[in-house]
Amino acid sequence: MNPITSILGAKRTATILPLAVLLLALSGCGGGDTSGESVTTSAETGGEETTPARTSGGETTSASTSEEGTVPADVLSATVGLSPSQDSGVNGIAILTDTPSGTDVTINVRNLRSQPGVEHLAHIHEGGTCTNEREGNGAVVQYVLDTVTTGQGGNGSSTTAIPDVTVPQFFSGAPKYVDVHAETTGDEVPPSISCADIYTTTGGD
User: Fold this and answer.
1) Plot region of 123 (φ>0 → left; ψ -120 to 50 → alpha; else → beta)
2) For residue 104, what are the CA distances in angstroms to 70, 76, 130, 202?
3) What does the alpha-carbon distance between residue 166 and residue 170 come to, in Å, rounded to a whole number?
4) What number does CATH give the domain 53-198?
5) Per-domain residue ranges for the chain?
6) What is the pTM assigned to this prediction?
7) Is the pLDDT of residue 35 over 70?
8) Tens digit of pLDDT for each residue in 115-135?
């Protein structure tokens, strides 16, 4: 082989290889995978605030609701804020968490004025909003939740397992809301003292 041709061939190869490596590296940088991108929004409605997040791989681990109210079909958890009714001062959160058998609804409230050990009824209503409830036009009870018991410092909590329903189903169909009632003193259901709308695509205020 001609020595000059051999040298030129070696130089050409030395030049092409780094260029090929550079092109391959650049081609892997375009676009990127944004499936794990965190998206955070919030909506305030009478003290209600909710925040969504996504994990890598695009799996939704929590979701927010807004006045538009849509949630992804694979949402695993959603939090809505309870705000005071009837000047009660009672606020807190309700957490809806997907489980293998249905949904757990956990209520945590503060500023209860009743004595420790007193139980407060709690419900999820369908066909209305907290505004309706506060105007005396409460919607029908869809789910009876475990009572919220007043603890030390006016805090209270309860967790209720609701079978055969997913978190997104709470955010579909007719508008719904979750509320905690005043201390029971007779046979009648006492007024609501804290409430949170579960926004839907067809309702919520």
Assistant:
1) beta
2) 20, 11, 21, 24
3) 7
4) 2.60.40.200
5) 1-32, 53-198
6) 0.65
7) no
8) 999 999 999 999 999 999 999
